[in-house]
Specification:
This protein has 3 helices and no strands. By secondary structure, the protein is mostly helical. The longest helix is centred in the middle third of the chain and has 15 residues.
Amino acid sequence: MAGSPTDGPAHAGPRADAPPPADPDLPAVLDIVRGLLADPPPAWGPEQADVALRDLGFDSLRTVNLLVAVEAALGVELPQERITADTFRTARTLADAVHETRHAHG
């Protein structure tokens, strides 16, 4: 058509509102986090990935337990420089650190 505002958007690439690729370690980290909660919520899923671990009741001792559990379950050792408050802010930030450690160290 003459004057058409677009010329074939059929191959325009990924949609701008498409979600980013899922972190393959996130489901396992979420399971570990849930297992360490004293009173886990009945509804638990990916929507919990961005809830602050502090808000879920993670104090310093429970966070150390989380580190040990994640390293054992996922077969990864986080380097000392990754053991920070920012890494343990949410399940997603922890899963990201695990993923980055795997990628950087094999």
